[in-house]
Amino acid sequence: MRRPAGAGHGRHCWVHDPPDAPGTWPGLLVEWRQRADGWHGRVAYTVTGTHGPVLVEAWLPAGQLQQG
């Protein structure tokens, strides 16, 4: 399987339904990594927390990421 489109390395993306934060969030794709279960992107994104914005960094499946 080929790596998803986009080189990573600081590209804007949309994060769809990350854990504990349903919805679509703007994010920054940092890098791609292929695992046994497919491609995953390392992303940084913000979600709305109890006391304001919260910065999250996570590895998410490629299916949850969309080029921005």
Descriptive overview:
The chain is mostly beta strands and 68 residues long. The chain has one domain (11-67). 0% of the residues lie in helices and 63% in strands. The chain has no helices and five strands. A five-stranded antiparallel sheet has the order 4-3-2-1-5, with no helix packed on it. The chain is globular. The two termini are 22 Å apart. The model has no long low-confidence stretch (mean pLDDT 89).
Q: What's the main sheet like? A: 5 strands, antiparallel
How large a portion of the residues is in β-strands, by DSSP E? over 45%
- Tally the beta strands: 5
- Count up the helices: 0
Helix amount: under 10%
Q: Note the run of SSEs as H and E.
A: EEEEE
Model regions low in confidence, pLDDT < 50 over at least 5 residues? none
Widest sheet: strand order? Answer: 4-3-2-1-5
Shape descriptor reads globular
The total tally of domains equals: 1
Termini gap: 22 Å
**Alpha-carbon Rg, integer:** 12 Å
Average predicted local confidence, pLDDT: 89
Structural class: mainly beta
Short description:
It is built from no helices and 5 strands. With 68 residues, it is mainly beta.
Note the topology.
Layout: E1 11-16, E2 24-35, E3 38-49, E4 52-61, E5 65-67
